[in-house]
Amino acid sequence: MNNNFKLLNNVEKTYWYINRTLANLPRNEMVLKTHIDDNMLQVVELTYSYLINTESEKVRKSNLKMLLIKLSMIDFFVLEIYKRGYIKKKKFESITNFIIEIRKISYGLLRSEKNNV
To answer: 109-113: long-range contacts at Cβ-Cβ below 8 A with a sequence spacing of 24 or more?
Structure first.
């Protein structure tokens, strides 16, 4: 299977999984909820931008690096939700496993971009 397709597929799965989780957060955590949702939407946008932009290798690498930064932020926010007791350990581990998988694919794509240059 193509790594680009795997990246997109995993990003979309993660987005919908996290989106369902956010629905259960209380209203007083609206700021945290908004930050997670915004970062996930930016991850989706950066993924599409990486896949569509085939002209500039520099821009593609930049998109992947920004995607990794946004994933780290989502990881941090999910840890915060877990620490505050809004999600159970199993759901926390599931979300982090999704993020780890996307991160692995992204680093692999970055390495392959480096080797092509």
So the answer is: 109/3, 109/4, 109/7, 109/50, 109/64, 110/61, 110/64, 110/65, 112/3, 113/57, 113/60, 113/61, 113/64
Cα–Cα distance, 78 to 15 (Å, whole number): 13
Mean pLDDT over 8-23 rounds to 94
CA distances to 2, 72, 73, 74, 91 from 64, rounded to whole Å, are 16, 12, 14, 15, 26
C-alpha separations of 4 from 36, 93, 109 in Å:
23, 24, 8
pTM of the predicted model over 0.85: yes
Residue 31 tokens, joined? 């700021």
Given the structure tokens 């680093």, which residue do they identify?
Answer: 107
Digit-coded pLDDT (tens) for 6-15:
999 999 999 9
